[in-house]
């Protein structure tokens, strides 16, 4: 259980950290082309600028969460406060994706893959960390 939990932790945190940095500071235009098949340069300039600005902000928040998670990995797996915060943030992402299924409709297969991966991550990390916190507490 430890190996699978850490596997999901590091793949999830690694992806949000790299994707956050890439989207905030390297090339958010590529994300729109790859993920959404959207040419942002076809949008009116004011809309393109606002969209990219907000996207960079959200990706920077994602990067911050990734860095936080890497810095506090020990606490995430041993202290209830950190564990609940990490799992709550991760689970909110899953819930937002599920909500989007009803609000917006069916996404592409890639977004289903993200949803399943994140849900499994929440479940495995939750189950394993319950055991690690009991060990540290007792």
Summary of the model, kept short:
This protein has 138 residues and is mainly α.
Tell me what you see in this structure.
The chain is mainly alpha-helical and 138 residues long. The chain is 86% helix and 0% strand. It has 6 helices and no strands. It has helices at residues 2-26, 28-36, 45-71, 73-76, 80-103, 109-137. Helix 1 (2-26) packs antiparallel against helix 3 (45-71) and helix 5 runs antiparallel to helix 6 (109-137).
Distance between the termini: 20 Å
Give the amount of beta strand, in percent: under 5%
Structural shape: elongated
Provide mean pLDDT, rounded: 94
Number of H- or I-type helical stretches? 6
Gyration radius, rounded:
17 Å
Main sheet properties:
none
Helix content: over 70%
| Overall strand count | 0
Low-confidence stretches: none
Q: Which structural category do the helix and sheet elements fall into?
A: mainly alpha
Q: Report the order of strands and helices.
A: HHHHHH
Essential attributes:
138 residues, mainly alpha
SSE diagram, text form:
Elements: H1 2-26, H2 28-36, H3 45-71, H4 73-76, H5 80-103, H6 109-137
């Amino acid at each position: 259980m430890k190996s699978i939990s850490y596997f999901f932790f590091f793949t999830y945190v690694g992806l949000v950290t790299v994707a956050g940095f890439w989207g905030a500071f390297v090339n958010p235009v590529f994300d729109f082309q790859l993920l959404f098949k959207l040419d942002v340069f076809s949008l009116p300039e004011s809309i393109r600028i606002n969209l990219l600005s907000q996207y960079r902000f959200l990706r920077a928040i994602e990067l911050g969460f990734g860095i936080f998670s890497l810095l506090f990995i020990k606490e995430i797996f041993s202290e209830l406060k950190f564990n609940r915060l990490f799992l709550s943030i991760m689970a909110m992402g899953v819930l937002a994706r599920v909500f989007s299924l009803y609000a917006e409709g069916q996404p592409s297969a890639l977004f289903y893959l993200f949803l399943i991966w994140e849900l499994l991550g929440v479940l495995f990390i939750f189950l394993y960390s319950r055991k690690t916190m009991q060990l540290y507490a007792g």
